[in-house]
Amino acid sequence: MTPTLHAAFALPIELYQDKALHAAAMKLASRFNLSAAYDAHYLALADNLGVEFWTADKKLANPVRHSLPWVHLIES
After folding, report:
1. Following DSSP, what letter does each residue of 14-57 receive, concatenated?
2. DSSP 8
3. Cα gap 75→3, rounded to integer Å
4. Which distant-in-sequence residues (6+ apart) come within 8 Å of 3 by Cβ?
5. Which residue has the higher pLDDT, 8 or 52?
6. Integer Cα distance of 40 and 8 in angstroms
């Protein structure tokens, strides 16, 4: 196994497979007219966990950050 793959497997990653999370993501995608449903899953998960969401993706952050104050755009 390569060192990079070994490092990736050592990350403390948790998988969330909650039907309510998927429903919340679809509501967010619809509410903000997001073209990528997977983006809405990131938002739904952050909301579910009660954490801030930081992204450099302007297409994701700009439509939502004024309504969702826990969404922040990283600008360079």
Report:
1. -----HHHHHHHHHHHHHTT-S-HHHHHHHHHHHHHT--EEES-
2. H
3. 31
4. none
5. 52
6. 24
Which tokens hold the place of 29? 């995608």
Beta-strand pair 53-55/71-73: parallel
pLDDT in tens, 10-29: 999 888 778 899 999 999 99
Residue 30 contacts residue 24 (beta carbons within 8 Å)? no
Q: For 70, which DSSP code?
A: T
pTM value? 0.78
More confident: 1 or 37: 37
